[in-house]
Amino acid sequence: MQENHIERPLQPGDRAPNVVLDAITRQGKIAIDDFRGQRPVLVGLFRGLHCPFCRRQIAAMSELTGALQEKGIDSLTVVNTPIERARLYFRYHPLPNLLAASDPERVSHRAFGLPNVQFTEDETDWPRKVGISAVRSMRIEMPSELPQPMDPMSAMEFLDKADGYEITEDDKHMVATGEGQLVGEFLLDRDGVVRWCFTEAEEAGRHMFGIPAPREVMSAASNMAV
Length: 226
Prior knowledge:
Blueprint: E1 20-23, E2 29-31, E3 41-46, H1 52-63, H2 65-70, E4 74-79, H3 83-92, E5 100-102, H4 107-111, E6 118-120, E7 129-131, H5 132-137, H6 152-163, H7 169-178, E8 184-188, E9 194-199, H8 214-223
């Protein structure tokens, strides 16, 4: 398959590319074209399961699966985690009706235009580069899970410990190659055209580590003809 590379994340009105990936929660392959001409689909493209924010984003997306299915909309979760590692994780942390695929090479993220941000000493050119000092100045607020606002690194360490998540060699490799990978969710209609999206690249990173409000997702789903 020829990869598609675009300079910005896909926006409403853009046609999504086809991407073929290894299925995690079933055998075989999953492709974007499996849904095209059949049913709309919400595609979530996340970092590896080593990322505690992504684990929470995946769980939040999974919670909407039933409501989306009632509207005739499928869901597909993509993680930058090798297939066997991902299958092991979901075996012990199952999510109802989860359809997931493995993409350790981040083919889907590039195809949908999600950048892999380069960390620099002090230069920021969002969303291509970001200075470490700028990252450290960020504060993550998760009142139900963090004791206080924390910088992303400290928050990740705290959440991993709270989750009992043990970093493996597969995880370390994913961090080494895609620590700055931005993520997003894209709602595609039955023709594979983007009708709504939520990405970390938007608005100078305002949505970094965030989760779209369920009402926003469901409103977009309701407004799309099925």
